[in-house]
Specification:
heterodimer; A: about 210 residues; mainly alpha; Rna Polymerase Sigma Factor, Chain: A; Arc Repressor Mutant, subunit A; B: about 260 residues; about 5% strand
Amino acid sequence: MTPEDHTAPPPPDSDVMLVQRTLAGESRAFDMLVIKYQRRVERLIGRMVRDSDLVQDIAQETFIRAYRALAQFRGDAQFYTWLYRIAVNTAKKQLMEMKRDPLIFQSQMKSADDDETSSSERELNFHVADTETPEAVLASKEIAQAVNAAMDALPEELRMAISLREMEGLSYEEIAQALDCPIGTVRSRIFRAREAISSRIKPMLERQTGKRW
Amino acid sequence: MNTHIRPIRYLEVNMNAAQKHTDLLTLASAGAHAPDQIPLALQDFDVSSSLSALVDGEVHDTELDCLLAAHARGQETLEAWHSYQVIGDVLRASAPAVTAKAPQDFLAGIHARLQAEASLAQPLQPTLPRTPVAVAGHVRGPAANDAVFRWKMVAGLASLAAVMAVSWTLLGTAPSGAGGTRGSGPQLALMGANPGVTATQAQESTALVVNTAQGPLIRDVQLEALLAEHRHHGAMSALQMPAGFLRNATYDAAGR
């Protein structure tokens, strides 16, 4: 299988594993799901709701609803697809409740675009941010620049490995075949690439959050 | 008993898949199934490497146990996890790196709300039963509203009332007397059931059979009076107005 073969099945989904662990009582696994999808859910809701505080509230409500309904997640679809529906329904419900007050409704509502896979999704990336503070927008740009600079500074073998994984979505096995190396090597290279990039952005993330974990 | 457990360090070796699974089996055989039972020797377990693999969905169940245990021990699992997720999102341009609310605060808010609810006290359970349910011999349990609504008694009373109502209707319209025919005979023979003719009158009526060219003809005084009455009312329309599209059924017709 070549890297150009995009019909390959997706790699195993860690989300399903985390869901199963949450259902088994490991609430820490749900924390990881929250951390993973917080920014995407907030961005999604930010396309429907103008006020950033309200975006936060709806995003939290989304995760709480997801936690309550987690047992109903059968794994037929991707976890984010399931979470996406919950987020959209939660936002719509919130907007309907606000509709009783037209002034608030008009000021809060934005043109909702429910098409998750719209071609403009990537373009929306960094200018959804009338739901963000100016500081957050600036920090996002700085971190993006740092990530790209760190990618350019990576050795070729590491950059190739993490690019195939993150941008092309190949599994470790597919990357191993493409690069003609063992799977363990692929895993190691991707990890080292992430560590190298992470060391560049961690101070920026800590500065943004203002606190440690 | 395995007393020496080699820490897993993926950076040091270029493992293939078989090697990885062998090490994980070693980990599992050391009793690392439950997060609380992970041996101290596994504290050298490379959390970040496994986290990186978890981001890609390439970890084994046992390795995930170790990760969650490391998270429970307060290691900076979430910090590395967050950093890796941000890197992926930035490279894919799928989400901004930073949001208005810090992930720690966001997570704390969710914890607070969940703890405020009783749902957190009860662990989530899958909807599917863990143990197979025996189909044979299944006994239906009591209804949820049995205690507050005696629906069985009410249903029985309603059925009884319905039977009584139907019976009353049938008895009220049934022909009286032993000689009455049920439904199939001419209605003129059911004079006993006609409220306009009393039983005494019926008994006093005298029938006279007259032989004619068309056959025997029953001549009865009350029958004659009844036919005369039908003639009187037969041409009247129940609509109380002319209705050309209706043809009245009367006994006036020549053929009757």
